[in-house]
What does this fold into?
Amino acid sequence: MKQASTQYEKKIDARRQLPQFWLFDLDNTLYPADSDLFLQIDDRMGSYISKILKVDRREARVLQKSYYMKYGTTLSGLIQNHGIDADAYLDYVHEIDLSVIDPSPRLDELLKNLPGKKYIFTNGSVAHAENVMARLGISERFVGIQDIKASNYIPKPHPSAYSKIISRFEILPEMSIMLDDIPKNLLPAANLGITTVWVKNARWDSHNLEPHIDFVTENLAEWLGQIPRAVGGV
Ligand SMILES: [Mg+2]
It folds into this structure.
């Protein structure tokens, strides 16, 4: 873990309080990436493309990944190139088996004890966020969900997604912290003055720590658990 007790303390000292706004990514951040839940979504994206565009799975896979690379989400590419029904797509790809993730009373307790307003900031859908939160047992801890629809289907890390969540919930960036498993999603946040936490997993093992990342952890609950200690028992 990066030096939470030094750099973070400095930032918190400047504010003399914990963040008031917490922006949590959903997939592979609030639940462990090794549950492979996201692989199920990934697979459903492929089967949806195959079905709707009448191409074989191999071609569907190529399209899926090329749209993801070019547009930030596969969905954005499908909307812009094929005018697909976003809601139907989102419903389909999020029809997954959530039993691969375990309920987390510990995460619920940690979130409960953290002061400030908590939001989900995801490139997925509201329904998927609600399902995952319910499975983890943390639904009560969040006051808002910014999903891909609310971001006009323009995903993180496009700056417009960040402007949208900030204006919608009247978030003060300098009083905020954002947690995400994808390092590049934290860059626009850092540029706005938001403190950033990279919730690292095996997928990003070879990725280097970048200057826009304030903290890194491979265990969200553990990291959240040490925050009050790091800032002097708040
Ligand atoms: Mg994620």
